[in-house]
Write a structure and sequence with these properties.
By secondary structure, this protein is mainly beta. It has 2 helices and 18 strands. The chain has helices spanning 7-10, 113-122, and strands at 14-16, 21-23, 26-28, 32-34, 37-39, 42-44, 48-50, 55-57, 60-62, 65-67, 70-72, 75-77, 80-83, 88-90, 93-94, 97-100, 105-107, 110-111. The longest helix has 10 residues, at 113-122.
Length: 123
C-alpha cells in the first residue's frame, strides 16, 4: 500500500532528518525542513520548517519560517514567522507578519522589520 505524499512535503528541497546532526551553516536558494540538530546558521530564500524535535543553535533566515522545535538564535523572515505550540525560541524575531500559537515560548524582541522597511522605501 502506497502512502500519499502531502503537497507540503513535495515542495521540500532539503531535508535534515531526526537522526542527523550538522555542524556548520546551511545555505540554500530552496526550501529546507529540519528535524535534527544544526549547530550553525540556516539561510534560505525559500520556506524553512523547523520540526518539533529539531534543535537549532544559530540564526535562521528564510522567506517563510514555521518553527516547532528549539531555536537559540535570531529569526529573520522576509514574509511570515509562525511559532507552533511546541516551539521555544531564545532570540529576536524580525518579520513582516508574526503568528504564535498558544503554548509557544518566545524569549526575545519581535520587530515588524519588513513592513517598516517597505513603508520607508515607499515614502
Amino acid at each position: 500500500m502506497s502512502k500519499k505524499i502531502s503537497q507540503k512535503a513535495k515542495k521540500i528541497d532539503i531535508y535534515i532528518g531526526p537522526e542527523s546532526a550538522i555542524k556548520g551553516n546551511v545555505i540554500t536558494d530552496k526550501s529546507v525542513s529540519i528535524d535534527g540538530e544544526v549547530d550553525g546558521d540556516i539561510t534560505s530564500r525559500g520556506e524553512v520548517i523547523i520540526g518539533k524535535h529539531a534543535h537549532i543553535t544559530g540564526n535562521v533566515k528564510g522567506y517563510n519560517i514555521t518553527a516547532s522545535g528549539y531555536i537559540k538564535g535570531n529569526i529573520d523572515a522576509d514574509d511570515f514567522i509562525k511559532l507552533t505550540t511546541s516551539c521555544k525560541v531564545d532570540g529576536d524575531i524580525c518579520a513582516k507578519s508574526f503568528i504564535a500559537d498558544e503554548g509557544a515560548v518566545f524569549n526575545g524582541v519581535c520587530n515588524m522589520c519588513k513592513r517598516i522597511e517597505q513603508e520607508e522605501s515607499n515614502s
